[in-house]
Design a protein that fits this description.
- The complex is a heterodimer of chains A (about 110) and B (about 450).
- Chain A has about 110 residues and is of the alpha+beta class.
- The radius of gyration of chain A is 14 Å and the shape is elongated.
- Chain A has four helices and six strands.
- Chain B folds into two domains: about 270 residues, no CATH class; about 120 residues, 2-Layer Sandwich (Alpha-Beta Plaits), CATH 3.30.70.
- Chain B is globular.
- The chains are: A alpha+beta (about 110), B alpha+beta (about 450).
- At the A-B interface, strand 2, strand 3, strand 4, strand 5 and helix 3 of A face helix 9, strand 14, strand 15, strand 16 and strand 18 of B.
Chain lengths: ~110, ~450
């Protein structure tokens, strides 16, 4: 079934140099297994392309059911140099949670909604 | 040292500008051994250097002095130790102001420790002459490229000088730049006698410090599932109850608002985390991939299993430099046709400026339509083309201050010379403000000497 990423994960983001750090937290072990396979760095790069003009790197922390993404160039110059409203990337996590995903029913059944 | 079986450490100030109510409530609303406070954003030290250049009695976080004025009798009566990086670039001026506050309250015999050595601004030429390039960690360029524009240079010190200050009996420990987790790791080293090679425990204390370092961000603030959070108005700031073996519990005082669950703690663990397998500090490399969280209910999350390894041989140095000027301003444009009219307004401003000889390149100017989808512009579901009103926000930047300033005088004329429904101009004509650039670099640890000195009220 097609759902937004927010249905099976939560997120938090903030600045990291001239880019942003976007942490995605799966809401269940089943959701983590699904996201580990499907929420690739490339998928995130395409979804966030209007915000991020650089590379996307993904790190995994299986113990926390976390996928952590570094967006290399997403702040319009970064920190004090940016004149964008979201110069610190505080809303990038929520932007990522808007992604639509085709999630199997058994994963949804095993993942409580917020 | 080494005789307590648990220690309560809280963070009452997550960043420069956080609410003063956090620390005031922490010392009043439940038990506490240590209160830590972070007052330094990256830009702060640069501003403080300028303040001190104009007035030798300035250059530290005056908010901290105001806080101590409100909590001094309480922290002395309850023997709560306070650790703050409020010293900025002038820790002795901060200490002198604190001594006056303590005297005003009639509190005698209170010890304040000052940790120094982080400020290497006055040593830059000496270090460069000695062969340190202080190359930019992101670009590889040597510092000499921007040397004449540098406005501050501070090493991120670790936790051991803080532990030393506590060992000398300090009630208040004042530092300049240090790692944020170090504010929490310092008292743990002091209380439990952890050694410099006890990397698993140092990593545990680092993780504890990382969870606390942004204040209410681990107790329900900035949380995805915000509807699940009760009473954010009276949110409890975070506390760790730590044990000698390195395990700890994240919680908040009973009766306070907010939420502590495995998920709220996880939210803070990922914040600015980078590579979870290699979280670098001067004291250790912590493995966030080893953190084991268990939700015990009742706003208590237990953290165990943390491992770490030896740190690198370098400190991170945060260097700031003048990087040009910027100016932003905004107007509100009502409907009907709010977005179309706001776009016309932006076009008018750029054309009038160009008519007068001021043209700004694509990287030197921006316009945003707040309300129509700015934060998530271009992201699916992130925009609308028919909002009831929008805030037109425009800005420019560049090396020429006069050119950046000129922009600000073409915004307000739109109220009478643009389309109808333009309002909401407030705060005066936008003026150029300085852009502070950051230059992250590394410096060999043996080139930095830290000192701890103690003063008594």
């Amino acid at each position: 079934m097609k759902v937004l990423l927010q249905r099976i994960a939560s997120a938090r983001s903030g600045d990291k140099g001239e880019g942003s750090n976007v942490g995605v937290m799966a809401r269940s072990p089943a959701a983590y297994a699904f996201l580990r396979e499907h929420l690739t760095a490339e998928r995130v790069r395409v979804h966030m392309a209007a915000i991020n003009h650089g590379e996307v790197t993904r790190f995994e922390a299986d113990n926390l059911r976390v996928l952590n993404f570094l967006l290399a160039d997403s702040l319009g110059g970064g920190g004090s140099a940016s004149i964008k409203t979201d110069a610190q990337g505080k809303t990038h996590g929520l932007a990522l949670l808007r992604m639509e995903l085709d999630v199997p029913d058994d994963v949804l059944a095993a993942t409580p909604a917020s | 040292m080494g005789n307590k079986d648990s220690v309560w450490i809280a963070n009452g100030q997550g960043f420069w500008g956080d609410s003063i109510l956090g620390p005031i409530r922490l010392v009043n609303e439940g038990p506490l051994d240590y209160l830590t406070l972070d007052y330094l954003a990256e830009v702060t030290l640069s501003i403080m250097q300028k303040l001190r250049a104009r007035d030798p009695s300035k250059g530290f976080a005056t908010d901290f002095v105001r806080l101590i004025d409100r909590i001094a009798p309480t922290i002395v009566e309850k023997d709560i130790k306070v650790i703050a990086n409020a010293g900025g670039v002038n820790p002795h001026a901060c200490k002198d102001a604190l001594l006056q506050v303590l005297q005003k309250h009639g509190l005698e015999g209170v010890k304040i420790a000052v940790v120094e050595g982080d400020d290497v601004m006055h040593r830059l030429d000496e270090l460069i002459d000695a062969g340190e390039t202080l190359a930019n960690m992101d670009t590889g360029e040597p510092l000499s490229v921007v040397r004449d524009k540098v406005s501050s240079a501070n090493v991120y010190l670790g936790a051991f000088p803080i532990a030393e200050a506590l060992a000398q009996g300090a009630q208040i420990v004042l530092t300049g730049r240090g790692t944020d987790p170090g504010l929490v790791l310092g008292p743990l080293i002091h209380e439990f006698g952890w050694s410099e090679s006890d990397f698993d425990r140092l990593a545990s204390g680092t993780v504890a410090g990382h969870i606390l370092e942004c204040g209410a961000q681990c107790t329900g603030g900035n949380y995805t599932d915000w509807r699940a959070v009760d009473n954010l108005a009276m949110v409890g700031y975070p506390i760790v109850i730590a044990k000698p073996d390195g395990t700890f519990t994240v919680t908040k005082h009973d009766g306070t608002g907010g939420l502590v669950t495995e998920d709220t703690v996880r939210h803070q663990l990922v914040y600015e985390m980078g590579d979870p397998a290699n979280y670098l500090t001067p004291d250790c490399i912590a493995h966030f991939t080893s953190v084991n969280l268990s939700d015990e209910g009742g706003h208590k999350v237990r953290v165990a299993g943390v491992t770490g390894e030896a740190p690198t041989g370098t400190y991170k140095v945060s260097i700031s430099y003048h990087d040009g000027w910027k100016s932003t301003g905004q107007l509100t444009v009502s409907g009907p046709d709010a977005l179309d009219k706001a776009k016309l307004c932006a076009d008018i401003v750029w054309k009038r400026l160009a008519f007068d000889g001021f043209e700004y390149g694509p990287d030197e100017r921006m316009e945003e339509y707040v309300g129509a989808g700015v934060c998530h512009e271009g992201i699916e579901g992130g925009t609308t083309d028919d909002p009831p009103e929008v805030v037109l926000r425009m800005g420019v930047k560049g090396p020429d201050r006069a050119k950046v300033d000129r922009f600000g005088s073409e915004l307000v004329p739109l109220v009478t010379s643009g389309p109808p429904g333009v309002t909401g101009f407030a705060g005066g004509r936008p003026k150029a403000t300085e852009i502070i650039g950051f230059w992250p670099a590394l410096l060999r640890k043996d080139l930095v000497e830290t000192t701890v000195s103690v003063f008594t009220s």
